[in-house]
Design a protein that fits this description.
Length: 80
């Protein structure tokens, strides 16, 4: 079974964040970058969104979440 990819409306619903806040967090390294799905479409792996939500719920610091994002991006390379 492959990874589930969430489009922006689903990410917004699952995080409670607005589009602009999601992209602000991406620029600050506190949310994973989206993966390209096509010429004009992107999405986020569901497990990465869950991991960020779990870290926030656990009270992780911004620096700890940045480290998690780096790990999530590195893990993408080993999934294929």
């Amino acid at each position: 079974m492959g990874a589930i990819i969430l489009r922006l409306p689903a990410v917004k619903a699952r995080t409670g964040l607005s589009r602009s806040t999601i992209y602000l967090h991406i620029s600050e390294g506190r949310f994973p970058k989206p993966v390209p799905l096509g010429a004009r479409a992107v999405g986020w792996p569901e497990d990465e969104v869950k991991a960020i939500n779990a870290a926030r719920i656990a009270g992780k610091s911004d620096d700890e979440i940045r480290a998690l994002v780096i790990k999530l991006h590195a893990d993408r390379k080993t999934r294929a």
